[in-house]
Amino acid sequence: MSVVRSKICGITRIEDALAAIAAGADAIGLVFYPKSPRAVNIAQAQAILAALPPFVTTVGLFVNMPREQLNALLAQVPLDLLQFHGDETAADCAGYNRPFIKALRIKSDDDVAAMIGEYPAASGILLDTFVPGIPGGTGEAFDWSLVPKGLDTPIILAGGLTPENIASAIAQVQPYAVDVSGGVEASKGIKDAAKVRAFVAAVRAC
């Protein structure tokens, strides 16, 4: 089985970003969705990115942000990868000169393979839990058996992951990567360094 990558999302502080990297996380996520308790502004994002060592993938999370506004943000924040969590079409996600991943919120009756097929240019697809009115960060897991096997697209598993359940999640889904936010927090937007270390260690042990 190949190495599973890990991303710590909802980073709001430099010390949390550095703790995630020290623990061995491959990527950190910054939320640019004002309604989220984990949202950062441009100045916060710039300070976090400036403090990072090399070889860390920086991901920006967006929810239906207008193209002009997103382009203006990218001119100021040098993100590596874009993560779209809203109602964006494949065309909406393209054209930023950066790779992107599309988040899909999964319900029990969804045809997950067909949903993934709508985004052929995506570098990966993030599968999260459907909760009405909440685009992500719900802290709730979905039925992992809904994830099809043998997909060509890299799958990033999210939604309700914790240090305690991540090994079973990886064993069942066999994703390319996993993405955690609330499961390693002391409070919303504030990471618990011990939980981050435990999570990444559990991922690496799989």
UniProtKB/TrEMBL annotation:
GO biological process, one term: L-tryptophan biosynthetic process
Keyword terms, alphabetized: Amino-acid biosynthesis, Aromatic amino acid biosynthesis, Isomerase, Tryptophan biosynthesis
One Pfam family in the UniProt entry: PRAI
Gene it is expressed from: trpF
Family of this protein: Belongs to the TrpF family.
Catalytic activity: N-(5-phospho-beta-D-ribosyl)anthranilate = 1-(2-carboxyphenylamino)-1-deoxy-D-ribulose 5-phosphate
GO molecular function, one term: phosphoribosylanthranilate isomerase activity
N-(5'phosphoribosyl) anthranilate isomerase (PRAI) domain location: 7-201
Name the UniProt record assigns to this protein: N-(5'-phosphoribosyl)anthranilate isomerase
EC number: 5.3.1.24
NCBIfam families for the chain: PRK01222.1-4, PRK01222.1-6
InterPro entries: Aldolase_TIM, PRAI_dom, RibuloseP-bd_barrel, TrpF_fam
Pathway recorded for this protein: Amino-acid biosynthesis; L-tryptophan biosynthesis; L-tryptophan from chorismate: step 3/5
Domain of life of the source: Bacteria
